[in-house]
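Ticket opened by: R.M.
Priority: normal
Category: complex prediction / small molecule

The reporter submitted a protein together with zinc ion and asked that the result be attached to this ticket for the collaborator who will pick it up next week. Submitted input follows.
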Amino acid sequence: MLMAVYCLFFLILLARLWYIQVLMERHYKAAAQENRVRLVLLKATRGTIYDRNGSVLAFNLPSYGLSFVPASLKGRYSSVEDFLKELSGELKIPYDELCRNYKRRFYSTYWPVLVIDGLPLTQVIDIREWLMPQGVLNLEVDTRRFYPWGEIFSHVIGYTAEISEAELKLYSGKGYRGGDHIGKTGLEKLYEDYLRGVDGYQEIEVDALGRRVSVIKEVLPKNGFNLLLNIDKHLQKVAYDALGDRRGAVILMNPKNGAVLALVSKPSYDPNYFVWGVSPSEWKSFISDPLRPMYNRAVQAELPPGSLFKTLVALASLSEKIVSPKQQFYCSGFMKVGNRVFKCWKEGGHGFVNLYRAIAHSCNVYFYNLGIQLGVRKIAEYAENCGFGRKTGIDLPSESEGFVPTPEWKEKYFKEFWYPGDTVNLSIGQGFLLVTPIQMATFVSAIANGGMLYQPMLAKALTDGDGNVIKEFSPKSCGKLPFSKSIIEEVKKGMRLAVTEGTAKLLSDSFIRAAGKTGSAQNPSGQEYAWFMGFAPYDNPEIAIVVLIEEGGAGGSAAVPVAKKVLEFFFGRYAYGSNKGKGG
Amino acid sequence: MFRFKETDFYLIGVILLLVGLGTLNLYSATIPQKETFFYKQLIWNIIGLTCLFLFAFYDYHRLMKYSSFLYVLFLVLLLLVLVYGRGTGGAKRWISIGLFSFQPSELMKPVMILLYSRLLSVRGEVKTWGKVFELGLYALLPALLIAKQPDLGTAVVMLFLFLVYLFVASSHLKYFFIVTFSSLGFLPVLWEFLKDYQKRRLLVFLDPDYDPLGVGYNLLQSKISLGSGGLFGVGFLKGLQHKLRFLPEHHTDFIFCVWGEEFGFVGVVVLLSLYLLLLWRMYKVALLAKDKEGFYIVCGVISLFFLHIFVNIAMTVGIIPVKGLPLPFFSYGGSATLSFFISAGLVLSVYRWRFAKEGGRSW
Ligand SMILES: [Zn+2]
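Result attached by the on-call engineer:
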């Protein structure tokens, strides 16, 4: 009887073992596989960013993190929380932060969780003393972006930071994982796919503590490509310094191919600050800063061009044969249109002015006359054909389009007719018209080169780790100015005269033969926007420049000195210096 | 003195086979540690075999006369363990005498069998409730002392032996059933006495995935070991679960998993058959026993082996909560090994003494 009962119990055991070993075999075999085979990421190294002369603008620093396999805590700590608490006390890292990282990056009890990251080397050495006897924590080596020039290049290069949950969703299928770093803005964002490379992995066999026993399979990572820029580090720095504490933008472009040699927006920010992660409150303070340091004025600012626009009106009028270059208009200091009076900026007027002098001295009355004869539709049509009202296509994210107004638009949004007075304002670049500094740069480059509109390009080429060129970003033409070369020549003469005797006269005592146009656009909320656009040398332009200073006052006195400093450096360095010839 | 036909070679053969397989299995289980478990166990097995033959040739009647003395002696030792004992993780189980240390609770098992056999054979069957309580008290005293160590598994063994003897040696089965069911009703009260980690074990038993890091981890890993063995196993020395240390306590409580992973369901059937053969052969001895003393002893030993085999494997496969009872001849451990060999030696002794006078008893 007793034996019968015992036999019955043995049968129960056998039935259960049959279930586990035979029926559930596949399930438990898979579980065993998950136990002992682990994927270890071999992270691809993000490509380095160089300027045109090979100076490093962004590279990778080693960054250290600590990970642990939750299952390995068994028998040493009663719970993960206990372990994190001890870790927090030991490393002086807030417990909440550890918990947050743990929750966000937890995958399974057998997979390492990166609970701390972004540790500098010095701290790692301290930690090792505590870490070694423990045997629970593993040291993880990763890289973090470092930008040696800090805020000087932040508006060009942008920065990388830890991928957000929204980005993980947006780029699902591209193989990103939580904790990865991704280009957030600037070139880092635009060229992300080239820079990041392809991660590799190792399939390794591990023991219960997550220690490596053997390598089963290995796929090596493909490192990201290096990015070579058209930007010149020294020129960028000079332009950055030349703006001083003022808000504004400076753009330097090669008029022959659209290569951007410098692109500065101020105020700026230190990109290194964001790489290591900022708290939501810190982020908010950056975003709500009234000076808007995160705002790239060179490509995002939409402003009236002011007198810079007179060059376009002049070109259009010559093209439409409304006026000949030598034909003179009389400026008495004001002009009546209907029953409104429009003033010239010079009290008492300019007297008789032809096209050259009108451009050089920026006579409003002269251009009122041309604008009225052209009409709003012609002006808008020419503006659009010259690249205004649409993106230039510069390789930066979040470029603005600017705006070219039409009578239809005004009727639709203001329920008002387009008055002749609106046309008068438009002819001197005021009113509804909005442009971006980068649009002005492509426009002035086109004037300089005789009519070709080039897409501005920051990137020059991609190279692999051995320095082989993978891809060259060749100049891209995006149309031509709708004017003949001879007409453009006439306007260039006027721009040269502006330097020798006109509003940009501060440039005349320089060794550079520059040409240009100043502008002072009305700003409803403060002092005028000071503009300057120009090119040099006058006979065979090698460089085009646009300077914008917010609330800078008159373009001639505020923006021209900045341009002068930058241009003199450029020609001092390249045309007459040791690096002769590299300006192209 | 030594007479060939008076020795149960069948039983000895099964035991030697089990010891051999158990030793090989332990060898595989302890490879990764490069520790001395395997060699220590070899020595224990040799000492155990010596004891087996010593007890086989010793007259169990003479031994039973000392049972009360031994019982009191081991109760005192259990008390001493609580005061001077040492162990791991807050539990006190070992007592040291010079270089030699052992667990009195393990050796208390054969002592209990001897005590009960003597009491029942001298005073006759259990016929009154007074007797039931008296016998119960004898088991409860060591059980409480052992539970205090705490070693709940071994404490349960004591109470189980009491129930077994109630079953085989009472005038009426009502005693057995009433005591069994009323102790089941007593369980909620017992729950209150459990320590936190013991409660957690029971809770995790109900849902192993509830705390995969803690107690559930053991159960999950033991099932993974067995399951990845499949029908035919992965082969001797090829089990990975214990080599990579996923399997906890693989040389003691979870030794069966190592066997199950390496030899699969087929190997498991073979091992269980061997154990059944062991019990069956002992049962034959019980039937042939010359006197009640011998019969009672063999019944106790059969039950002792059965309980260890069943509880150990049942815990491994997740039928009952995790409890640390060693698997006879397979698990590592000195005192437990000795206890099993001595118990088996008692059975052999009973076999020998039946030749003094023919006779048997059916039950
Ligand atoms: Zn005028």
